[in-house]
Amino acid sequence: MTQGDEGAIRAAETPAGWDRAVDLDADPATIPDPAELEVPAELRAEIERRMALYPDRHSAAIPALTAAQKLHGWCSPEAIAQVACVMRVTPAYLSSVVTFYDMLSDQPVGRNSVYVCTSVACHVKDAKRVYDAIERAGAGLSDTVIREFECLGACDMAPMASVNGRFVGPLTEEDAPAIVDAIAKGEEVLPGRGLGDGGRG
Amino acid sequence: MLTEKRVLLENIDEPGLNTIDVYERHGGYKSLRKALFDTDSHALIEMLEACGLRGRGGAGFSMGKKVSFIPKGSQDKYLCCNADESEPGTFKDRLLMQKNPHRLIEGCLIASIAAGATHAFIFIRGEYELQADILDAAVAEAYAKGYIGRHMLDSRRSVELVVHRGAGAYICGEESALLDALEGKRGNPRLKPPFPAIQGLYQGPTLINNVETLSNVPLIVANGADWFKSMGTEKSAGTKVVSVSGNVQNPGNFEVELGVKARDIVYDLAGGPPEGRRVKCWFPGGSSAPVLTEADLDLAYDFETMAQAGSMLGSGAIIVVDDSQSIPGLALRLAEFYRHESCGKCSPCREGTNWTVKMLERIENGDSTPMDLEIMAQVQSNIIGNCLCVLGDSMAMPIGSMIEKFRPEFEEHIEDARARADVEAHAA
Question: ipTM, 2 decimals?
């Protein structure tokens, strides 16, 4: 609660641009023309391979956007246009998918990710303190997104975090500098303490 | 002293069990051969009904019944394995997929044969990258050996299997939202009926089962329905992989027969709360289950008993909370989870989760009075049963149970926070 508005209810954070007016006169974006839009060959091949796996090509939307996000770093308008072009769907349709899922981002984010679980099972093991310590230690880290995340399904390692998709835990506040340091150097974080390390499961 | 009964988790720690050679050495894919050549789908469905296997994902519905609801005929039918394990406290499917992916694949194939499905999908949550990679490799191995695909093992049956990765949304574990996500849309739940068994994926009849449920299927086909029924209780047959987490000394996955005492699971297997601490409350089936108290630990851990006690077995995830924890703080974190994960389609859930968080924040900030507890309890009861899916209920039930069982603590917390806020206001 901020000073001065005691008793008021704090509004949830709103996404950037939510109060900007929509241009109602503009035509909706159409399916990009393959003759005009260049799509990286590898991305095109991956999306086409995915579409072939399903009875309906729309099912490939999430895997295709994940692949595009990997290439572009985030689901930028350019990335969405490329996927739309290959999948023959409108960019608006793909935008609706991107904004729904936590792992797809319509904002530029860092290429490194540190998702610290603070859900119930980690919460009772002081996960919030671990998150705060990592966030403090990683304040100067570039190209990295550090965020609280909902249950990652590794409550036996609580408190834990997913660093670039690799689960590490159990963590303490003292681990924060080592985690940040390894990310900055591009090394594996906390070797031997990840899920799957040395047969750990 | 309770010990584990390892059936699903047998040999789970053997290195290389995730490869097809080791799995075959342990008798893997023999059940698939049996399902393909020695029996027919009618007999398979009868066996699945007779064995009493109930869904391990949360609802506990009879798997055999679910298969029998799938219409016969030549239309395209589908099987979806729900591997979107996102219920806080649950991590059993993660272990099964990571260590023994071929048993799940075999289970998917046998269930597809029983349901007459030609396409099977494993919908795995996007965060499980390691497990999805292992599954992908296992599926490729099984394709190469002819277990999956057109005319599998030179029979007349064909099943295609695809591992589909989600992108991070708790709601996609709800079966109809899972179908929308698999169709490439936003994962919003659908209006039911029609149920997925009649009209599911791509409008076709669809069987949806959890990872643990499907992993049981090859064992049942191999050993028979009576073998499965001999474990557990009369109405809750078989074993259950229980994920124990929270304030325990030895968290992890433990496989036990259904019907054992919950106290034995928490103390004998998971080591109980840390030295000098007592169990304050526990969630018997993931964070969506109403909390139970210390005394309830003496109940039998099965579907019926947990339901009779006013909670549920759910996904079989026990989260233990010891007496060092504050219940209002726990309630706030719980409510924040459901607010974040609500898809926003139904108003009672979207608004109810939001306002519950705001009211709990007010308690923490010293802005509320004990009267707010009444309002909060009322909001919870207005959510239950009023939405397309049970996500809202999943918050309303545990929060409601916390207010009911720990009301004095909430009241004390409200007074303390108000007193603190007063002191701060005077100091400022």
Answer: 0.92
Which is nearest to B201 in space by CA: B228, B181, B221? Answer: B181
> A154 and B91: CB-CB below 8 Å?
yes
Instruction: Report the CATH number at residue B390.
Output: 1.20.1440.230
Domain total in chain B: 3
Q: How distant is the Cα of B128 from the closest Cα of chain A, in angstroms?
A: 8
CB of B413 within 8 Å of a chain A CB? The answer is: no
A112-187 CATH pick, 3.40.30.10, 3.20.20.390, 3.40.50.670, 3.30.70.20 = 3.40.30.10
* Minimum Cα–Cα distance from B120: chain A residue: A54
pLDDT at B32 over 50: yes
User: Among A76-90, A140-154, B320-334, B349-363, where is mean pLDDT lowest?
Assistant: A140-154
Which residues, 6 or more positions from A82, have their beta carbon under 8 angstroms from its beta carbon? A32, A37, A39, A40, A43, A68
pLDDT tens digits, residue range A38-60? 999 999 999 999 999 999 999 99
Kindly state whether residues B401 and B275 are assigned to the same domain.
no
Of the candidates A1, A100, A150, the beta carbon closest to that of B340 is on A150
**Same domain as B188, residue B175:** yes
B398-415: per-residue pLDDT in tens?
A: 999 999 999 999 999 999
- A7 pLDDT above the threshold of 60: no
Q: Does residue B61 sit at the A interface (CB-CB below 8 Å)?
A: no
DSSP-assigned letter for residue A194:
B
Distance of residue A187 Cα from the nearest chain B Cα, in angstroms:
18
Residue A14 or B59, more confident: B59
Q: pTM for this structure?
A: 0.93
Alpha-carbon distance of B56 to B60, in angstroms, equals 6
In-domain check, residue B9: no
- Any idea which residue has 């409350």 for tokens? B281
Domain range spanning residue B362? 327-427
CATH fold, domain A41-98, is Arc Repressor Mutant, subunit A (1.10.10)
- Number of A to B CB contacts under 8 A, please give it: 163
Asked if B214 and B108 touch (Cβ cutoff 8 Å), the reply is: yes
Unique residue bearing structure tokens 């007999």: B43
CB contact under 8 Å between A115 and B13, yes or no, is: no
Q: Which residues of B touch A151 (CB under 8 A)?
A: 86-90, 170, 287, 337
